[in-house]
Design a protein that fits this description.
- This protein is an all-alpha fold.
- It has two domains: about 425 residues, Growth Hormone, Chain: A; about 55 residues.
- It contains 21 helices and no strands.
Length: about 500
């Protein structure tokens, strides 16, 4: 039973709590990347092993994001939000005090459970906020993923130089503890619930094919793309994925409803998410490396980790502005149009990175364009998916969209890493052609994302509603999609 204090909670306070949780998760996605060499030296391990600090987090978040979202749909989103934030806090504490690489990797697995924060946030916003505020709130919280990713890259270097890499975990831990307590005290429990039990069998199948795919993709560069381990993982994923889909289709209580996944708006936006994720996460990973390349290589600027992070500050600001403005733009122009613009701007920015990167101001302009694109597209994708599904499936639908975007990022980063490092100079850095070809590849995937975005169906308001439970969703659906129903 919801307490009177929770019932009286202003939705703006709820939104503040949700934003702190999303920001904490987002920071943990990116802050560790620039300082892996520091962690490797501090924990006396090798490069192949330290990459599991990233892989473990990626795989765990990919598994738990849709699962936590679905559990929230069934047992209560506020309750699962506290669980997800608690996992982030516990994982961050364990990572901060870890004295060995094994403990740190285990801590990152626990942190990945916090991936459920994002779909739970979208569900709570849809359940609790005034309808006219839903689009802007979802847009802002979705954009925080891109903003947090940029902020993590900006502050990682200065933080490690001033203190130590342990503070990369102490700070998110403090944020998530505060957010978890605030969520427990103030965030109201969801009125919408999906009856039934959690399908453990299909959850296991989904986890198995995701682990096989993501471990293969993430470690392929180190193990060799043609190695027995990598090929075996890809074959396993290729077998288990259709088995999982078949199991979900035949299940009376599916974890992920395949009928929902076949909704035209949902599957087209998910395809955009896959292609878009390939570009966004890869740019987060490789632009700092490009900026840090010594000028003796014939390109690059020889910046330090701190300096390269600060160079991405305009991108981060642009992401935040795009996300905050997306709600108002969606009301006027439609979320579909914002998604097309975001994907197109991503293509423009990556084409620019491929061919005009000789001066620092060029890179600043291009990354700022990318930041604006990320903010707009993240908000638009989230609003389109949330509006296209029944309220009781908000968590799992947005969780799968986030998950697919993460899978795209893993694939894109792996492919870009192979392309960029295919030819190395005698000093051990990639040739300029490697980066040119890599950025060009991302420009092509971003262009494809824009083309698919044009094909996203626009939901039109219904003129007749049949009485019954579905009618309640259709009435809500019409209101929720009004911000995304503008024709292109």
């Amino acid at each position: 039973m919801t307490s009177p204090a929770k019932r009286r909670t202003d939705y703006r306070l709820t939104f503040l709590v949700l934003c702190v949780g999303v920001a904490s998760f987002s920071l943990l996605q990116s802050m560790v990347n620039p300082v892996l060499p520091t962690i490797q030296a501090a924990l006396d391990t090798d490069q192949a092993t330290v990459t599991w600090v990233l892989t473990a987090y990626l795989v765990s978040a990919s598994i738990f994001t849709p699962i936590i979202g679905r559990v929230g749909d069934k047992v209560g989103k506020e309750r699962m939000l506290v669980v997800a934030l608690g996992a982030l806090a516990v994982g961050s504490l364990l990572a901060a005090v870890a004295g060995s690489i094994g403990v740190l990797i285990a801590a990152r697995v626990i942190q990945g459970i916090g991936g459920g924060v994002l779909p739970l946030t979208f569900g709570i916003v849809r359940d609790e906020f005034p309808r006219e505020k839903v689009a802007s709130a979802i847009g802002t919280s979705a954009a925080l993923l891109a903003v947090g990713g940029g902020v993590g890259l900006v502050i990682a270097g200065p933080l490690v130089e001033a203190l130590s890499y342990h503070w990369l975990f102490w700070i998110p831990m403090a944020m998530t503890v505060v957010a978890a307590i605030a969520a427990f005290v103030w965030v109201p429990e969801s009125p919408e619930r999906t009856p039934g039990k959690i399908n453990v069998g299909t959850a296991f199948l989904m986890s198995a094919w995701l682990v096989a795919l993501l471990v293969g993709v993430s470690q392929g560069h180190h193990w060799g793309w043609g190695s027995a381990k990598v090929v075996g993982l890809f074959v396993t994923a290729a077998i288990l994925l259709p088995v999982w889909v078949l199991a979900e289709t035949r299940s009376k209580e599916p974890l992920v409803d395949m009928k929902m996944m076949r909704i035209p708006t949902v599957w087209t936006v998910n395809l955009v998410a896959l292609l878009f994720g390939m570009g966004m996460y890869s740019m987060f990973a490789f632009v700092p490396q490009f900026l840090q390349t010594p000028e003796v290589a014939g390109y690059g600027f020889g910046l330090s980790v701190t300096e390269s992070g600060l160079m991405l500050l305009p991108q981060t600001i642009a992401s935040f502005i795009g996300g905050v403005a997306a709600g108002r733009f969606a009301t006027r122009f439609g979320s579909k149009n914002l998604l097309v613009v975001g994907a197109a701007l991503t293509a423009i920015g990556t084409f620019g990175m491929a061919f005009t990167h000789d001066e620092i101001w060029m890179v600043l302009v291009e990354t700022t364009i990318l930041g604006l694109a990320f903010g707009l597209a993240f908000a638009a994708m989230s609003n389109l998916v949330v509006a296209a599904v029944p309220q009781s499936q908000t968590g799992v639908a947005s969780g799968m969209n986030t998950n697919i975007r993460t899978v795209g990022g893993a694939i894109g980063s792996a492919v870009l890493g192979t392309v960029v490092t295919s030819n190395l100079q005698p000093i051990g850095v990639p040739t300029e052609a490697g980066y040119t070809h890599g950025f060009l590849l991302l420009a092509i995937t971003s262009t494809a994302a824009a083309v698919v975005a044009v094909m996203v169906p626009v939901v039109k308001a219904k003129t007749h509603v049949v009485p019954g439970p579905q009618a309640e969703w259709e009435a809500e659906h019409d209101v929720a999609t009004s911000a995304s129903a503008s024709q292109p």
